[in-house]
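Entry 12.
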Amino acid sequence: MSAIDKLREQQSKVTARGPQWMVAEQLMDICRAEPICAALLDQDLDVEAMSITEAEKKIKAYADAHKTGSFACVTPAEADRILWEFYGLPQRGKPGRDAILGLDLADFWG
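Predicted 3D structure (tokens):
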């Protein structure tokens, strides 16, 4: 099962267009743009502590910590950064975690 399949499966268990659902949408966009990230997310999404629900909690915690009165907002760029950090994704254009172990999954895509 691919990362996108796993994201869709997790997405089907949460409220449509709710916060966790939107996290899955953003992660699917990352997977489509960055194949190395899709490979890493494919592994991470098998772990409950790395679910879209847990990722959304990180975004909510950031929003709560940056409230202005009773208003909280997380920009798309901030949410993107939080997700990249939460999942330990490599910086765009840089080798992934597997490259550190001597295997760069990018070598398999030509």
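Annotation: The first helix runs from residue 3 to 11. The two ends are 22 Å apart (CA to CA).
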